[in-house]
Amino acid sequence: MACFCEVIGFACLVALLMSFSNKAPYQLKLAIFAIGSGAIVLVCMPFMIFRPKDYRNALIPAWSCRQLCKALGVTMEVRGLENIRKDSGGVVLINHQSCLDLCVLAHLWPVVGRATVVAKREILYLPFFGIGSWMWGTLFINRSRKHDSINALQKESKAINERNCKLLLFPEGTRNSLETLLPFKKGSFHIAVQSQCPIQPVVVSKYWFLNAENKTFRQGHVLIQILPEISAAGYTKDEIDSLIEETHNVMQAEYCKLSQEAKAINSKKHV
């Protein structure tokens, strides 16, 4: 156990050293983040076996991930906590940009209530992290088999009302670093309509400090805005397109606003 703790400490130390240089190799920083995240889960795994598939298993890894994120020079600010109702279930929708979204989840996990993440099945096969994800209740879906994915989501949607769970999803379905959101997939909205639960939009500002094309990973600040719930009560399957449009418009407007504010903040950091 001691050697694993040393691995985490070493990863954070290297990450901290890398954060002082905007010229630090892009791939190296991402590798440090990936290895550090895996090491964190590995250390915490023995404590998860006593309550498998319990969302509370992710609380300590989430705290550790937040520290790793800071060590890499990335800070995140969560706003709109007053819009969260922990005593009720719902579908939480988040825009998807990169692997650093894991840090966003780490900031949301302690505040949204009883959370469950929906992720592609490939995540399950990542060393250490995949098993850890299963231990804190991640719902893995096979996107190549649409029927199986829908069945899995339908079963999970029952937990929204029965156990007041919050189902966290990325409605764009893939990573997107553009200045506009991609069209939303319908799966998460089918869940909201089927369970008649509210949709909680969460908008994350653009990662101005991260550029995959230019291979740059600088210090940066991220704004996370939790918006008021959008009611799905009364909607039917035939009206899902209308619900998608309403949600997309609300999140797109906030994304533009939030990203411009984050751009100004990050510009000051890099002067």
Topology:
Blueprint: H1 2-19, H2 26-48, H3 59-71, E1 74-79, E2 90-94, H4 101-112, E3 115-120, H5 129-135, E4 139-141, H6 146-162, E5 166-169, H7 187-195, E6 199-204, E7 210-211, E8 216-217, E9 220-226, H8 240-269
Parallel strand pairs: 1-9, 2-5, 2-6, 3-4, 3-5
Antiparallel strand pairs: 6-9, 7-8
Helix pairs in contact: 1-2, 1-3, 2-3, 2-5, 3-4, 6-7
Write up this protein.
Pfam families: Acyltransferase (PF01553). With 271 residues, the protein is an alpha/beta fold. It has a single domain, classed as Glycerol-3-phosphate (1)-acyltransferase. It contains 8 helices and 9 strands. About 3% of the residues have low confidence.
Salient structural properties:
single chain; 271 residues; alpha/beta; Glycerol-3-phosphate (1)-acyltransferase; seven-stranded mixed β-sheet; two-stranded antiparallel sheet; 9 strands; 48% helix; 15% strand; 1-acyl-sn-glycerol-3-phosphate acyltransferase
